[in-house]
Design brief:
Length: about 230
């Protein structure tokens, strides 16, 4: 009996059947698609993301209703333009995974035009303190994490929730575990894995829950944030 899995744990929850024989084919197709997209400039990806997001606004009624409900719960006005912008920014963020996973780390580093708050990171490095980066789901934290890892003298461990579809997880691991990047699953085991190097003046890149944050903060000297911007 085949199981139904969501294509994404995020905003877009596209349901489809995933048969075991199709996993290899799905991995090959997704890899080829992302590699092709990684050849495009960031501005082209953002233009494509805007168009796909606006199309999704009209096609994905359940997601549109969910966004409206969330905005109202947050005390925001869910006007049409703002909801369209949410779809567009989500699509742009998704397309940014292509260069994040398949561009060379050195090429990703050149994509960043401005960095804010790095002096706090450098201060901790000079003192030999551990670092903990809290990465909100705003913009591409995969691109940001890759940039940060390029600036550090040691590996950066990113905590993440493994997707239910193995083909997607395989692509994510291949894209993240390269250069100075490492990964650890969310949960106690992943928290322990990333806290140990933090205590040795190395750093995990993200912490998804408050309870884990308290544990990590106890192992790290301080908590810093850096805002990274791409054009």
């Amino acid at each position: 009996m085949p199981q139904y899995f969501p294509f994404s744990d995020g905003m877009f929850r596209l349901q489809f059947r995933l048969f075991p024989p199709l996993r290899t084919a799905m991995h090959i197709l997704l890899t080829a698609l992302l590699k092709c997209l990684s050849l495009l400039s960031l501005s082209c990806l953002h233009t494509l993301g805007n168009r796909l997001g606006h199309l999704a606004f009209y096609l994905l009624k359940e997601d549109r209703a969910r966004i409206v409900a969330n905005m109202r719960q947050a005390g925001l006005n869910p006007d049409t333009q703002t909801v369209k912008a949410v779809f567009a920014e989500t699509a742009k963020c998704g397309l940014e995974l292509a260069p994040a996973f398949f561009k060379k780390p050195e090429d990703i580093e050149t994509m960043f035009k401005a960095v804010h708050g790095w002096e706090h990171v450098q201060q901790a490095l000079d003192k030999g303190e551990g670092l903990l980066f809290i990465t909100p789901h705003i913009g591409s934290y995969d691109l940001g994490g890759r940039y940060i890892s390029q600036q550090l003298p040691f590996h950066l461990t990113a905590m993440y929730k493994p997707p239910k579809i193995k083909a997607i997880d395989k692509i994510m691991q291949a894209g993240r575990v390269r250069g100075k990047g490492k990964t650890a699953p969310t949960g106690i085991q992943g928290s322990n894995k990333s806290s140990r190097p933090c205590a040795r003046a190395r750093q995990p890149s993200s912490c998804p829950t408050t309870s884990l944050l308290r544990r990590k903060a106890a192992a790290c000297g301080r908590i810093f944030s850096a805002n990274l911007h791409t054009p």
